[in-house]
C-alpha cells in the first residue's frame, strides 16, 4: 500500500528556495481550484450571454414578423395607426440599416472585435446601431 507524504508549507518553501528549478512544477495550495472556479464562472457567463443573444434574436424575429403583418395590412389598403407606423419605421431600420452594418463588421477579418467600439462611437454620435431587441 502507498502512504501519503505530509509536509508543511514552510518545508515546501524551503525546498523551493534550495531548488529554484522546481518552482514552476509546484502549485500553491488552492491555485488549481481557483483556476477551475474562474473557468466555471467564465463558462456560466458565456452560456448566459449566448442564451440572452438567442432570446434577443427570437424577439427580433417576432418583431420582424409583426412588421410583415403591418406591411400586409398597408398593402391591402387598410389605414395604419401612428403606433403601427412608428413600429414599422423602427423595424425597417433594424432590417435594412442595422443588421447589414453589423453583418459587414462580421465579414471583415477581425471585424467582430471592432463591433463593440463601433457601437460605442455610434452612440456618442447619436446613432443607434443595435437592433431594438438587443437594447
Give a structural overview.
This protein is mostly helical and 135 residues long. The protein has one domain (9-134). Helices cover 70% and strands 0% of the residues. The protein has helices at residues 9-18, 31-75, 82-107, 111-124. Helix 2 crosses helix 3 and helix 3 packs across helix 4 (111-124). The longest helix is centred in the middle third of the chain and has 45 residues, at 31-75. The chain is elongated and about 90 Å long. It starts with 8 loop residues before the first helix and ends in an 11-residue tail after the last helix.
Molecular shape: elongated
Q: What structural class should be given to the helix and strand makeup?
A: mainly alpha
- The tally of beta strands, per DSSP, is 0
Q: What is the number of independent domains? A: 1
Mean pLDDT: 77
Query: Residue share in helices?
Result: over 70%
**Radius of gyration (Å):** 28 Å
Any descriptors?
single chain; 135 residues; mainly alpha; elongated
Write the topology of this structure.
Elements lengths: L8 H10 L12 H45 L6 H26 L3 H14 L11
Helix pairs in contact: 2-3, 3-4
Report a brief summary of the structure.
This protein is mainly α and 135 residues long. It has helices spanning 9-18, 31-75, 82-107, 111-124. Helix 2 crosses helix 3 and helix 3 crosses helix 4.
Amino acid at each position: 500500500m502507498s502512504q501519503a507524504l505530509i509536509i508543511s508549507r514552510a518545508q515546501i518553501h524551503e525546498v523551493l528556495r534550495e531548488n529554484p528549478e522546481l518552482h514552476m512544477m509546484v502549485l500553491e495550495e488552492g491555485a488549481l481550484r481557483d483556476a477551475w472556479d474562474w473557468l466555471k464562472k467564465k463558462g456560466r457567463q458565456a452560456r448566459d450571454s449566448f442564451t440572452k443573444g438567442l432570446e434577443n434574436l427570437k424577439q427580433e424575429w417576432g418583431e420582424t414578423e409583426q412588421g410583415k403583418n403591418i406591411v400586409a395590412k398597408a398593402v391591402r389598403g387598410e389605414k395604419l395607426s401612428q403606433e403601427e407606423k412608428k413600429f414599422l419605421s423602427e423595424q425597417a431600420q433594424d432590417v435594412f440599416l442595422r443588421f447589414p452594418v453589423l453583418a459587414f463588421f462580421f465579414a471583415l477579418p477581425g471585424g467582430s472585435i471592432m463591433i463593440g467600439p463601433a457601437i460605442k462611437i455610434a452612440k456618442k454620435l447619436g446613432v443607434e446601431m443595435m437592433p431594438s431587441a438587443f437594447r
